[in-house]
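Retro notes
What went well: the complex prediction finally ran end to end.
Inputs used:
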Amino acid sequence: MILCDIGNTFLHFYYRGRVWKEKRNNLSQKDSSEVVIYISVNQESTRSLLLSHPYCFDLTPYMNLDTNYKGLGIDRIAACNAISDGVIIDAGSAITLDIMHDGLHLGGCILPGIAQIQKGFKSISVLDCGINLSVPLDTLPQNTKDAVSYGILKPIILLIENFSKNKKIYFTGGDGKFLSRFFENAIYDDLLIFKGMQNIITAKITSKGIYL
Amino acid sequence: MILCDIGNTFLHFYYRGRVWKEKRNNLSQKDSSEVVIYISVNQESTRSLLLSHPYCFDLTPYMNLDTNYKGLGIDRIAACNAISDGVIIDAGSAITLDIMHDGLHLGGCILPGIAQIQKGFKSISVLDCGINLSVPLDTLPQNTKDAVSYGILKPIILLIENFSKNKKIYFTGGDGKFLSRFFENAIYDDLLIFKGMQNIITAKITSKGIYL
């Protein structure tokens, strides 16, 4: 059984303890006797997967979450199924924040990813100066590059602080490891979505004797 | 005497108590007996102004500010010359934050403007859903449009709060009026940059008997 989380930029795979990502136009051949169980937020990439592998299974109809939120992305539903209490930050091309409390999803928000925010400066040439990821966030910037870097990172950090309060923070996604360093009560877990998928598979499929 | 602040998107004019903005490719004819005193962060727009009006005066060489910040934009220097204590937020295509204390500039930062941050969602079609400017910022979002709107506005508000602490906040720029509504200790002043220019003109030029 291979797990696959199809995002907007990459297809993320999990197989026997190993995670890796692939671009949709360059998918590797996988053992055709293994089922690929997937969730997806990108139809084009889903088509590429279905064309590249003979035996795929869409987990979407089995996914659910106790929430009032309308239109929650399937990747966020999966990550929320991995924990029952805490804040989940998935920092990729977009950054999503979701709060779980006693197995209930309380709500969430979405901001552009770090690279996307940086693109917001492209139209103003003097501000298109790259990002200093080690800019001090506890002192006031004194030059343009630090001012831009601070203006990208500090609002994200403040939002996460404001969101998480005393809850444990679970980071995942490409920029998750970097962002997790700013918080004491945080862990980085690149398996979070796969753990949520696995919980669903165990609870809804294999426990009912369905063979994949 | 007409004052002009040349930004990245518009040329902003001040004349006899009235302010207005013009695009660089559609500049109006002005009274040719009046000098246009300008500062600029955009060379192309400066050229357009110089071609459209016979008598222009660049205030840049007269501008100064007590600061350790390297590369502060001339429009920010002008705005900082308008006050001696407080936080200045110029919310246009970029949002700049600057702190003044006893006439000294302590530092500042820059983030993309609201419209620019919104563009960061364009590449993800499901998130390109527009912005709800009246999204509640004290409750957790429960749908995609609110989650995106919250993710654009809340980090900006938190950064301004964190920056300003108990200082008075002076908002200017296109989104300044909207953002000022989130703060009690704030005023919106669309003349801030012109007031700073006027202070420089009074202190450095007309007080010395230079005739413009």
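What we learned: The mean pLDDT of chain A is 93.
What to try next: split runs per interface for comparison.
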